[in-house]
Amino acid sequence: MKKGKWINIEKSGLEAREVWKCEKCGGTVRVKPGDEAENGVPFCPDCDRERTFVRTEVRGVQKEPERVWVAIITHRHGNDVLVARSEAGINGKVYDFVSDWWDDEVEDPENNPLPEDHAEAVSRYFGEIATDETLDLESYEVSD
């Protein structure tokens, strides 16, 4: 077999755990997506990195369903809908909204500056400062 460049082993939709057995020494190695291989076949660490493996088993574990986080902010001008792929991402977007409007909503912004703590800023903004505005935060599973 001709040698090719190193590639990453990928299995779409599954987090694969492949077990390969070396034809030369009998050793086994477990392979997962992202492990380096040549032409999709792993190297044997005991046979001086020769490509002597044969796949003997594939175990797949279904990935966790992908989720998105959605924040709907209702205010006197309408709604802002924010979407992110992570909880940290949506929290950052909500904080950005709060920081954009803080000085306009606070009565005395110089003596009442935006808190650096994101959770405190969001809590104070919707709970004390902009009481006519609401924040609804939900996460949803994405399906094909």
Features:
disordered N terminus, three-stranded antiparallel β-sheet, 144 residues
Question: How would you portray this structure in words?
Answer:
The protein folds into two domains: 6-62, no CATH class; 67-141. 12% of the residues are buried. The chain has two helices and eight strands, in the order βββββββααβ. The longest helix is centred in the middle third of the chain and has 19 residues, at 87-105. Helix 1 packs across helix 2 (118-129). The strands form three sheets. A three-stranded antiparallel beta sheet has the order 3-2-5, with no helix packed on it. The protein has a three-stranded antiparallel beta sheet with strand order 7-6-8, with helices on one face. The protein is α+β, with helices and mostly antiparallel strands. The protein has helices spanning 87-105, 118-129, and strands at 6-8, 14-22, 28-31, 36-38, 53-62, 67-75, 78-84, 134-141.
Overview in brief:
The chain has two helices and eight strands; from the N terminus they run βββββββααβ. With 144 residues, the protein is an alpha+beta fold.
Secondary structure blueprint with pairings:
Layout: E1 6-8, E2 14-22, E3 28-31, E4 36-38, E5 53-62, E6 67-75, E7 78-84, H1 87-105, H2 118-129, E8 134-141
Antiparallel strand pairs: 1-4, 2-3, 2-5, 6-7, 6-8
